Amino acid sequence: MSDEEHHFESSDAGASKTYPQQAGTIRKNGYLVIKGRPCKVVEVSTSKTGKHGHAKCHFVAIDIFTAKKLEDIVPSSHNCDVPHVNRTEYQLIDISEDGFVSLLTENGNTKDDLKLPTDDNLLNQIKAGFGEGKDLVVTVMSAMGEEQICALKDIGPK
């Protein structure tokens, strides 16, 4: 009995991270999982193949967390995994010495498990704004169990 329950839970946990979508319906600026990574599609081209072959979709996409370029070719009638991508805004409270940020959630709790972004430009903007004592709101993008700060808004002085 416990084996069955455990199997059910693990399949449920994996299923909530992505959903299937037919390759032929995925468009530019949509999301797609390539090689197990959540990506934003930057280019889609569809090729018609021979007499009995399937039309194929060629996707060029950028990993939303590492900014690496990935490509995939999938028959247009097949399903692809599409990640559930969420964007959430949090107010920045503090930046610790070890590179973790402390964020204020909507319900008043703190979220302390996020590191500063690896993008130098965004990192410098966050550090400079925080050093000047500005009220900053960061946008956190989450997909497939990963989270990263992807944008910054200045909501004025404290």
Automatic annotation (TrEMBL):
For biological process, the GO terms are: positive regulation of translational elongation; positive regulation of translational termination
PTM comment: eIF-5A seems to be the only eukaryotic protein to have a hypusine residue which is a post-translational modification of a lysine by the addition of a butylamino group.
Key words, A-Z: Hypusine, Initiation factor, Protein biosynthesis
Basic and acidic residues composition bias: residue spans: 1-10
Judging by the UniProt lineage, the source's domain of life is Eukaryota
For this chain, one GO molecular function annotation is: RNA binding
The region called Disordered is annotated at 1-20
Q: Which SUPFAM superfamilies match?
A: Nucleic acid-binding proteins, Translation proteins SH3-like domain
- Please name the SMART domains in this protein's record: eIF-5a (SM01376)
Which PROSITE patterns does this entry report, sorted A to Z? IF5A_HYPUSINE
The Translation initiation factor 5A C-terminal domain, residue ranges:
84-153
Similarity section: Belongs to the eIF-5A family.
**What does it do?**
Translation factor that promotes translation elongation and termination, particularly upon ribosome stalling at specific amino acid sequence contexts. Binds between the exit (E) and peptidyl (P) site of the ribosome and promotes rescue of stalled ribosome: specifically required for efficient translation of polyproline-containing peptides as well as other motifs that stall the ribosome. Acts as ribosome quality control (RQC) cofactor by joining the RQC complex to facilitate peptidyl transfer during CAT tailing step.
Q: What protein does this entry describe? A: Eukaryotic translation initiation factor 5A
| Organism name | Leersia perrieri
